[in-house]
Inverse folding.
């Protein structure tokens, strides 16, 4: 059974989970796992997932108090060589935590409070950290220039107050001083990101599952070109549903291919997009009077099929 829904683009992600849980309950789905980005995070959503015993992987902001608290506790342990995955140039570390679970029961007029086990996966990306630091330093330099020249930008006021102290004297005029402690605090977390889950697994398995969501989202745009779905020009609601369902099936296949690539270690040589492009040029044709004909297959293309555990296609004649 497959259920598809079209949602208005202005509905916040965090508002859709409650209704989705209700739909799954009505449809009788049992074991379900949610993989969601930061837009879906809210205390109500996490409580709802715990209440319905659903496995989840959710991206979170580092600014959340409990995420920052546990990160500070393990900060010095994350960037150790034993936690480094050279294939993605990323450090990964898993910390156990307790979720402060609450459940309101209007029919009884009370609130259940309990602790639920949670795992927080922390990551540090060398490349992202370097990019974040460079962007931050450029921003600080720009803010300082605005203050020195008196060209204040109202929307930057919070940043001015956070990172600078401005003093004006008759002799020396306007002097701008950096708040070094505030700047160091801001730079401390560059390159870090976190996932929360209620399912026990190592950090890089969790990251792979989470990134498969991104693979599918990126594939969505790519498939619009491959399946001629850049513009959903249809003459009826049924036609629109048919096109959406076709792409939904294609995305399931993309997701499965991503898992096969991970298992076969093909991500060391290709991105999913590159692998599809590599195989996309293989030609085949058949008609009523001829058997299936396959164009020339390069050794690298045949090797991809073998690594994926798929029989190499051959002509039927």
């Amino acid at each position: 059974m497959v259920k598809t829904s079209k949602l208005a683009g202005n509905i916040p992600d965090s508002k859709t989970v409650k209704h989705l849980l209700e739909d799954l309950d009505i449809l009788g789905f049992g074991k379900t796992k949610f993989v969601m980005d930061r837009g879906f995070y809210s205390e109500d959503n996490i409580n709802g997932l715990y209440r319905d015993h659903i496995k989840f992987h959710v991206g979170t902001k580092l600014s959340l108090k409990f995420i920052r608290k546990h990160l500070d506790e393990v900060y010095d342990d994350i960037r150790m060589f034993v936690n480094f995955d050279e294939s993605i140039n990323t450090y990964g570390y898993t910390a156990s935590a307790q979720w402060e679970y609450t459940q309101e029961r209007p029919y009884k007029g009370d609130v259940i409070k309990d602790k639920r086990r949670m795992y927080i996966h922390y990551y540090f990306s060398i490349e992202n950290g370097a990019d974040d630091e460079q962007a931050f330093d450029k921003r600080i330099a720009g803010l300082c220039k605005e203050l020195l020249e008196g060209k204040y930008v109202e929307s930057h006021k919070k940043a001015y107050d956070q990172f600078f102290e401005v003093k004006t004297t008759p002799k020396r005029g306007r002097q701008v001083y950096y708040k070094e402690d505030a700047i160091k605090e801001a730079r401390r977390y560059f390159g870090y990101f976190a996932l929360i889950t209620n399912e026990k697994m190592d950090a890089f398995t969790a990251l792979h599952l989470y990134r498969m969501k991104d693979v599918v989202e990126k594939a969505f745009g790519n498939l619009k070109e491959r399946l001629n779905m850049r513009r959903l020009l249809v003459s009826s609601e049924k036609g629109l549903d048919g096109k959406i369902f076709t792409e939904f099936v294609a995305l399931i296949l993309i997701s499965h291919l991503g898992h096969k690539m991970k298992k076969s270690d093909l991500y060391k040589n290709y991105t999913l997009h590159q692998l599809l492009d590599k195989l996309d040029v293989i030609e085949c044709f058949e008609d009523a009077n001829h058997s299936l004909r396959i164009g020339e297959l390069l050794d690298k293309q045949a090797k991809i099929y073998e690594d994926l555990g798929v029989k190499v296609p051959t002509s039927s004649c």
Summary: The chain is about 45% helix and 20% strand.
